[in-house]
Amino acid sequence: MAYDLKREEEVKEFVENLGIEYRFGCYKENKPEVCHLLADYLEAIKKDFDKAAKVYKSNCMEYNYGKSCLKYGNYALIGRGREKSDPQEALKYFEKGCELNDPTSCLHAGLLLTATGPAISVQRDVPKGYNYLKKSCDNNEAMACHYLAGMYLSGVPKNPKEYNPHNPEKNANIDFLIKPDLKQAFQFAKRGCELGNVFACANVSLMYKKGDGVEQNLDESKKYFEIAKSLQNAHETTKELKFQQGLESK
């Protein structure tokens, strides 16, 4: 059946039928990818976060669908579809998603395990977190590569309270879990840039300009600056298109 999506009543009918199709595909045909779509439908169309959370959770645990593990982990982290935030529960699902080779789950698990600060209630485990971030980067998650570059740029102190980012000389005698390594930082930044992370490209440009971790090359610095600028402009254009889409056709 063809729908005229300019007519409100037909849009409503289309949306309801979509939900019926997703429920059938999930509960009758046991298709995990359709269960994930059903949860997305409950989240985005019905705004029923409690039901969406239950579908994401069961699809992760029963069907081993990595993207649903990621979504339920995010719900647990921010307290959506539940009474309160539970970072430890979130980590459990991010780790399962990572085991199922979802690179963004690996990223989130790595960030939780390496983060510091009073708001972080997850036990810090930098080696484990590093491995998650490395797997994420190896599987083309640009932000993970960018984050790894940052870890090597400044190093990761064993005791973050001893680290002084504004006075590097005072950091000479502290213990590091990951020592500063500009060559490693450059390699991860370059990989992040290749995958489209604008901040990674900006770092590559700066490192070429200063000769940090790579031989100084002002031409390459300018090249990566232009790449970063192009990515930033594309991002701004995409945001504008999303805001304006459909206006001209009305």
From TrEMBL:
Coiled coil: none annotated. GO terms for cellular component: mitochondrial intermembrane space. InterPro entries: HcpB-like (IPR040239), Sel1-like (IPR006597), TPR-like_helical_dom_sf (IPR011990). Keywords: Repeat. It comes from the Eukaryota. Gene3D superfamilies: Tetratricopeptide repeat domain. Belongs to the hcp beta-lactamase family. This is Cytochrome c oxidase assembly factor 7 homolog. It comes from Vanessa tameamea (Kamehameha butterfly). The gene is LOC113401943.
